TrEMBL record:
This is Citrate synthase. One of its GO terms (cellular component) is cytosol. Keywords: Transferase. It catalyses: oxaloacetate + acetyl-CoA + H2O = citrate + CoA + H(+). Belongs to the citrate synthase family.
Length: 377
C-alpha cells in the first residue's frame, strides 16, 4: 500500500473529528453517558427530563419540566393546513421515513405562540422536533385511510405519542417502557446521522436542513433502519430452532445479521441489554414472545459463530428494539421514524454545539483516477 493510501481512514474509523460534551461512549467498558450521567440511571426518568438534559445540558427542576412539557404539547400540534398537505403526500404510500424526511424542513411553518427562549434557528428546530410525533401519526392515519385521532390532552411525551397513534389511553407500563426506549435513542456520539447534521450545520445551512439530512442518514439499514430489518429477519427465521443454520448461512454468504455489530463498542452495547429487558416486560402476546425467542436464539448463535472474528460482535440497540415497539402497537414500517422522534433532540444538541465553535467540515480525498492528461495528444 502506498504511503498516502495508508492515511485513508475508510469509514472515518478512529478519526476524532471534533469535541462534544453531549454524550460519551466508552466502547471498551460498554458504557454510555449523556452529559456525564449513565443511561442506566437516566432511563428511569421522564423523557422530557432527559431530552432537556441532552439539548440544554442540565436536568430541569419541576417548574422547568412543566414548561418544557407544556411547550412540547403546544408546539407539537400540527397546524391544519400543514397536516392536510402531509396527509396528501403520505397517501402516495412511500416509506414513512421518506415522507418524514421530505416534510422535515417545512414542519416549523406557522410557528406556535410559545418559545423556549432560543435563537430563531434553534426555535425552528425545536418546533420540528415537537411536531414529529403528530407528523408520524398523520402519516400512519393516511396510510391506514382513517382520520387522525383527536390531539391528546396529556402533556407527557410518551402518553401523547402512543395516544396520537392509537387513539386510546396507553397503560402506565406502556408509557414508561416507551419513554425508556426513547431515552436510550436520544444521542450516541458522532453516529452517521448526527455527523450528517453537523456537516450540514458547518456550512451554515438552516438547522431544519441539518435535521432533514440527518433523517436521510438514519433511514439507511446500516444505521437507523436496522431496527425494521432486524425484526423482518426474525420473522424470516420464524423458529428458534432455525437460528443456528440461518446465522451460518449469513456468515458464509457475507450477508449481515441486522442489529449485530457496532463501530464503537468492543464489548456489549449497554442499550441492547436494557432494550431486551424492556422487551421482556411488554412481550405478552404469543407472537411477540416467539419473536423474542427467535432473536435470543440468533443472538446466541451469532456470538458462538463469530468468536474467531478480529472484532467482538454483539447485539446493538436495534436488535431487540422491534419487539418493544411491536408490543406497543408501533408497526415495523414506523420503527425508524419513531427512532427519529427521539434522536432529533440529539441532532439539535449537536447542531447547537457545532454552531458555537464552527469550522466547515471538509475532509480531503486521496485521488486514484487517471494521471493528469490532455485530449489533444
Ligand atoms: C454497525 C456496523 C455498520 C459497523 O460497521 P463497521 O464498524 O464498519 O464494522 P466492520 O465492517 O469493520 O466489521 C468488522 C467485521 O465484522 C463483520 N460484521 C460486522 N457486523 C456484522 C453483522 N451484523 N453481521 C455479520 N458480520 C458482521 C464484518 O463483515 C467484518 O468482518 P471481517 O473482519 O471478516 O471483514 C456493522 O456492524 C453492521 O453493518 N451491522 C449491521 C447493521 C446494524 O445493525 N446497524 C445498526 C448499528 S447501531
Amino acid at each position: 500500500m502506498s504511503e498516502s493510501l495508508q492515511h485513508v481512514h475508510k469509514g472515518l474509523e478512529g478519526v476524532i473529528a471534533d469535541t462534544t460534551s453531549v454524550s460519551l461512549i466508552d466502547g471498551d467498558a460498554g458504557r454510555l453517558y449523556y452529559r456525564g450521567y449513565a443511561v442506566e440511571e437516566l432511563a428511569r426518568k421522564r423523557f422530557a427530563e432527559v431530552m432537556h438534559l441532552v439539548v440544554f445540558g442540565t436536568l430541569p427542576d419541576a417548574d422547568r419540566l412543566q414548561e418544557v412539557e407544556d411547550y412540547l404539547w403546544i408546539a407539537g400540534r400540527l397546524p391544519p393546513e400543514l397536516a392536510a398537505s402531509l396527509r396528501q403526500i403520505a397517501r402516495h404510500g412511500e416509506h414513512p421515513m421518506a415522507t418524514l424526511q421530505a416534510i422535515t424542513t417545512l414542519l416549523a411553518l406557522e410557528p406556535p405562540a410559545v418559545s423556549l427562549g432560543r435563537s430563531p434557528q434553534e426555535e425552528e428546530a425545536l418546533i420540528v422536533a415537537a411536531r414529529i410525533p403528530a407528523a408520524i401519526a398523520t402519516i400512519y392515519a393516511a396510510l391506514q385511510d382513517h382520520p387522525e385521532h383527536p390531539y391528546p390532552a396529556s402533556r407527557r411525551y410518551g402518553e401523547r405519542y402512543l395516544q396520537l397513534l392509537h387513539g386510546r389511553q396507553p397503560s402506565p407500563i406502556e408509557v414508561s417502557v416507551f419513554e425508556s426506549a426513547q431515552i436510550l435513542q436520544l444521542d450516541h456520539g458522532f453516529n452517521a446521522s448526527t455527523f450528517t447534521a453537523r456537516v450540514v450545520t458547518s456550512t451554515l445551512a438552516p438547522a431544519t436542513s441539518a435535521l432533514s439530512a440527518a433523517m436521510g442518514a438514519l433511514y439507511g439499514p446500516l444505521h437507523g433502519a436496522a431496527d425494521q430489518q432486524a425484526l423482518e429477519m426474525a420473522l424470516e427465521v420464524g423458529q428458534p430452532e432455525r437460528a443456528r443454520e440461518f446465522v451460518a448461512q449469513c456468515l458464509a454468504s457475507g450477508r449481515k445479521v441486522m442489529g449485530m455489530g457496532h463501530r464503537e463498542y468492543r464489548v456489549v452495547d449497554p442499550r441492547s441489554r436494557m432494550i431486551r429487558a424492556l422487551a421482556q416486560q411488554v412481550a405478552h402476546r404469543p407472537e411477540h414472545i416467539q419473536l423474542l425467542d427467535v432473536l435470543s436464539a440468533v443472538d446466541e448463535a451469532f456470538i458462538e459463530q463469530t468468536r474467531e472474528k478480529r472484532r467482538t460482535l454483539r447485539a446493538n440497540l436495534e436488535f431487540y428494539k422491534g419487539v418493544v415497539y411491536l408490543a406497543l402497537g408501533i408497526p415495523k414500517e414506523f420503527f425508524t421514524a419513531s427512532f427519529a422522534a427521539a434522536r432529533v433532540f440529539g441532532w439539535i444538541a449537536h447542531v447547537m454545539e457545532q454552531r458555537q465553535d464552527n469550522r466547515i467540515i471538509r475532509p480531503t480525498a486521496h485521488y486514484v483516477g487517471p494521471a493528469p492528461r490532455s485530449m489533444t495528444q
